[in-house]
Design a protein that fits this description.
This protein has about 425 residues and is of the alpha/beta class. It is built from 15 helices and 17 strands. It binds 4'-deoxy-4'-aminopyridoxal-5'-phosphate.
């Protein structure tokens, strides 16, 4: 492959899993984005479903993995498999180096000042539970307020609800308009003297809305309130810089960024993480244990009880190397082209309504088709090889806001093509025909 290829090689990404290289400088927006070359890196894309070429448009749920990620995990299991930190032997040293290297890769990916501020977790769900448990619970008093938004995924609602139930705190919710954009004035109004923490999704998984998190953080900080950002849907599409955002906590899941399942990261400001009690107890997270008392390891180990997902971390580092080599700006530009094409194609379909029309939107379309249940839409599309998601998208409150039990959602990733957008539109015309009979 030529050095200017848009497709990172498996070996370069895999080797950077154990010895991460500096992030690739971002290339000019969308210059020479060769989507076919990118697709060649993803084995799972080259299959048929129900006799049709697979069009995988369920990236909001999880992404397919490039060969580089698969190879990095295989390489780890074939050569370096050992437990980390405690071993004195060669394999354990290599595994530890790869694990520490993966943390450094995540640190760079998030723009975090220090590896001590990067905690490996299973994903966003665990990250938010950690913060709700270890940061919020000990601080919350009866009548205190946790400020969320109407757009949140259940992962950014239920952990706070659990904390509120135990402490007598209450949830306050920022509403959105008919486009699915947060009402900023309402946010400022709700940010009150009892607000103890704000939790907001960077990008809505149900509607695609990109929320003004920077401005929200600034307003919260003006009142001394910390902010947790759920970056599950942002990390694959937007360059994240936790220092520029000045967020207090930021969470993302590896599997949505072309990495493995079961691994993700929580960024937290060191002063906050330092002051928080452990989330889980066990090995790895202690300094000294007696039956009378135990003391905790330094950050980030204090929050990483038990044997970590070393292979997952190695795979995640390979995924980060992969997207960085492609360039997040170019990925975003490519996906924006797909979003515009899909929005235009779907707008032409009679009886179809797009739900979520925010001016700043990530590459997904949520929609309803008059007279057809979203699950039926999904099933008929599936029969044509088109994988989409139908349901409430783990965001029941936002569905309720729009008076809908469910939508169908097509979510695009870095390997999707305009031909797949056309296939989606053609597939939806077929759905209409089936139901017109
Ligand atoms: N938040 C958002 C916005 C999401 O889209 C998701 C995953 N659908 C989550 C949180 C939870 O992520 P995970 O299941 O990887 O923990």
């Amino acid at each position: 492959m030529s050095p200017d290829t848009t497709s990172p090689t498996a070996s370069s990404a895999a080797s950077s899993a154990s010895a991460p290289s500096a992030p690739a400088p971002s290339a000019p927006v969308a210059a020479g984005y060769d989507v076919e070359r990118v697709r060649a890196d993803f084995p799972a894309l080259h299959q048929s479903a129900h006799g049709h070429p697979l069009a995988y448009l369920d990236n909001g749920a999880t992404t397919q993995k490039p060969r580089a990620v698969i190879d990095a995990e295989v390489h780890f299991y074939e050569h370096d498999c050992a437990n980390v930190h405690r071993g004195v032997h060669a394999l354990s040293e290599r595994a530890t180096r790869a694990f520490d290297g993966a943390r450094a890769a995540v640190q760079r990916f998030l723009g975090a000042p220090s590896p001590r501020e990067v905690v490996f977790v299973r994903g966003v769900t665990e990250a938010i539970n950690l913060v709700a448990h270890s940061y919020a619970r000990p601080r919350l008093r009866e009548g205190d307020e946790i400020l969320l938004t109407q757009l949140e995924h259940h992962a950014n609602i239920v952990p706070w609800q659990l904390a509120a139930r135990e402490t007598g705190a209450v949830l306050k919710v920022v509403p959105c308009n008919d486009r699915g954009e947060l009402l900023f004035e309402e946010y400022l109004r709700l940010l009150g003297p009892r607000t103890r923490i704000v939790g907001v999704g960077h990008v809505s998984n149900a509607l695609g809305t990109v929320n003004p998190v920077r401005a929200m953080i600034e307003a919260a900080h003006a009142q001394g309130v910390p902010v947790l950002v759920d970056g599950a849907q942002a990390a694959p599409h937007v360059r994240i810089d936790v220092q520029a955002l000045d967020c207090d906590f930021y969470a993302f899941s590896g599997h949505k960024v072309y990495g493995p399942t079961g691994i993700g990261a929580l960024y937290g400001k060191e002063t906050l993480l330092d002051a928080m009690p452990p989330y889980q107890g066990g090995g790895e997270m202690i300094r000294r244990v007696t039956f009378q008392e135990s003391t905790w390891a330094a950050l980030p180990m204090k929050f990483e009880a038990g044997t970590p997902n070393v292979a997952g971390a190695v795979g995640l580092a390979a995924a980060i190397a992969y997207v960085e080599a492609l360039g997040l700006e170019r990925i975003a530009a490519h996906e924006h082209t797909l979003l515009e094409a899909a929005t235009a194609a779907l707008a032409d379909l009679p009886g179809l309504r797009i739900v979520g029309t925010a001016r700043d939107k990530a590459s997904l379309v949520s929609f309803v088709l008059e007279g057809v249940h979203p699950h039926d839409v999904g099933t008929i599309l599936d029969r044509q090889g088109i994988a989409v998601r139908a349901g409430h998208h783990c965001a029941m409150p936002v569905m309720e806001r729009f008076g809908l039990p469910a939508t169908t959602r097509a979510s695009f990733g870095l390997y999707n093509t305009l031909a797949e957008v056309e296939a989606l539109a053609a597939g939806l015309r077929k759905v209409r025909e089936v139901f017109a009979r």
